[in-house]
TrEMBL record:
SUPFAM superfamilies: PLP-binding barrel. This is Alanine racemase. Gene3D superfamilies: Alanine racemase, D-serine dehydratase-like domain. The keyword Zinc-finger does not apply. Pfam families: Ala_racemase_N, D-ser_dehydrat.
Length: 387
């Protein structure tokens, strides 16, 4: 016989206010285990990037210990995770001098947080702040492995050494770091393997230049979710950073890093209307719930604002969130597919897989946690945003 108290306490997807963020913990656990197995077999450690999750509950599941290591993208993240017990972090965004005081406060509280830089000016600021505080701030020199964004070219020995020598005049040169951001544009398995090889070669080369000049370089850090899954050689590397692998998303699926059944994050939405003559179903999840990230529009298969699934998380064939306003989403058949729009009635629930897990997650205050095809919400995990 069912206990009435237990039954009353059970929350199901149909009970939730929409739109809201759903996390399939079974898929998340599989994704984490997959990358861990891979990196263990290659003899390197994982320093997960927590910017995607922004949640202590997720962090505890992805880090190798309660204290880290971890990567963060804001100092607000650093303070939040420090309060949750994380003590080993890299703040992996180029350091602005006016943020060094916050870094010093975290270090004084027992957090081993390192910063990232790629200019002499930054190195001099870190060294000066270190001397003034009487405590060396550790920094890693960012290496440009693919022209994607920032960093020092790996063969620019003069710039590397000038930065390194400026940094050690008070600060600590902890190593080098790179991110193969251009891997997100890869379209074949060989292109992903090549991006991973280029990433490794760049950061190992830069580390050797520093060491040959007598400068320390204990940490050789690289990482992106695509290259972490396609690297064939990580010799000379000490750690791998990746973040979106925890949840995956449609961009990662389009690159070939995951399958649709690996995507752990979705947005639960309710059907609120029809435009039958246009072949539209309206839902209450617009770009304020999904984000305006249209990353798959540059891929061979565009997913619009997201791929539409039934309430259990099973995708409908070629049904996408084709357009979005602030609070309205337009569900329709993918152009040219010949698929049939599902018979969705007013009040029915759907789940929409996001293009970019980081962007979609940032619009929500927490995760409603389910497992597999179950509609039982087993937990609510808070997440945070801002700077």
């Amino acid at each position: 016989m069912t206990n009435p108290d237990t039954a009353a306490a059970t929350v199901r997807l149909a009970d939730l206010e929409t739109p809201c963020l759903i996390l399939d913990a079974d898929r998340m656990d599989r994704n984490i285990a997959r990358l861990r197995r891979r990196l263990v077999s290659m003899g390197v450690s994982l320093r997960p990037h927590l910017k995607t999750a922004k949640s202590a509950d997720v962090a505890r599941r992805v880090m190798t210990s309660a204290a880290g290591p971890a990567t963060v993208s804001t100092l607000k993240e650093a303070a939040y995770f420090a309060a949750a017990g994380v003590k080993d972090m890299i703040y992996a965004v180029g350091i602005a001098p006016d943020k060094l005081a916050k870094v010093q406060r975290l270090r004084q509280d027992g957090v081993d947080i390192a910063v990232v830089l790629d200019t002499v000016e930054q190195a001099e600021a870190v060294a000066a702040a270190s001397r003034a505080a009487g405590h060396a701030i550790p920094a890693l020199i960012e290496i440009d492995c693919d022209g994607h964004r920032s960093g020092v070219l790996p063969n620019d020995a003069h710039r590397l050494l000038t930065i390194g020598r400026a940094l050690v005049q008070g600060g600590e040169l902890r190593g080098v770091l790179t991110h193969a951001g251009a891997s997100y544009g890869a379209r074949t398995e060989q292109a992903l393997v090549d991006a991973a090889s280029q990433e490794r070669c760049a950061v190992v080369q830069a580390a050797q230049i520093l060491r040959d000049a007598g400068l320390p370089c204990p940490v050789v850090s690289l990482g992106s979710t695509p290259t972490a899954h396609f690297a064939t050689d990580l010799s000379g590397v000490t750690e791998v950073r990746a973040g979106v692998f925890v949840f995956f998303d449609l961009v990662m699926m389009g690159i070939g890093v995951c399958k649709v059944d690996d995507i752990a994050l979705s947005v639960l939405a309710t059907v609120i209307g029809h435009q039958r003559e246009k072949g539209w179903v309206l839902v209450d999840a617009g770009w304020m719930a999904m984000s305006q990230d249209r990353g798959t529009s540059k891929q061979p298969v565009s997913q619009g604002y997201g791929l539409v699934c039934d309430i259990s998380g099973k995708p409908y064939a070629d049904i996408i969130l084709a357009d979005a306003n602030q609070e309205h989403g337009i569900v329709t058949v993918r152009p040219g597919s010949g698929a049939t729009l599902p018979d969705l009635k007013i009040g029915d629930r759907v789940r929409i897989l996001p293009n970019h897990a980081c962007a979609t997650g940032a619009l929500h205050a927490g995760y409603k946690v389910v497992r597999g095809t179950s509609d039982v919400v087993e937990a609510s995990w808070p997440r945070f945003g801002g700077w």
